[in-house]
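User:
I would dearly like some help making sense of a protein record. Take your time, and here it is.
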Amino acid sequence: MALTLNLQKSQASLQLCLQKAGVTKPPVVDMAFLLDVSGSFEDEHREGITNDLLTRLVPWGLTFDPDKKLDVITFSHTAASVFEVGAVKADNYQGYIGREIVAKVPGWCGGTDYSYALEQALRGFGWLKGAEPGLLGKLFGRKAEVKEKKRSLVVMVTDGENNDHARTRQVLRDSQQRGDEVYFLFLGISNQPGQFGFLEAIGDEFDNTGFLAVTNLRRFVAQSDDELNQSLLLPELLTWLKR
């Protein structure tokens, strides 16, 4: 049975949790939800478990995002798999992944690369320039698209290690060196201990990157609002939200 929330109650719970942690006024932060659609994650998507996780983050979008939404981006391997699915809001979160993603997005049931999806999120929030114009664009004097820079929180959900360690590190290193106002929160979904050594390493390496291992996703999404928020509000993330 699909999870539904009393969004007003869940949002109030998040705001209280933030206040207790010293974030007296939630900052304005655009939000993105990056979802791994590799083959090993298929069952969780089809069974609606990842949609329950997305549901639990809707109150975060309502609290932080100026447009009260989460921008959903799917990915598997290579740049061609990265796809901007759309915005999740209070009125469309129920069944969203089954309706909009399962067996429909590019790269469905592929492998796993992180870097290209991270770059897409950075472009969407204005921290990276858009794609360079093609030959015709250059002939007509068109320039690469430049978007307004927006402070942003990117939640990336994956069930396995990636194949592009060096490139992912470079994307995160460049972002940190530019001083992008972005925080990357990686959620690793697996019941296998030690599955996410790379994510643990980059969580320690970069100031704007955090990692949380989720060993039982069904149990995780079934937590109370307070329990779930306390799990997600890592100390480093709280420090970033207070800036």
Summary: The chain has a mean pLDDT of 94.
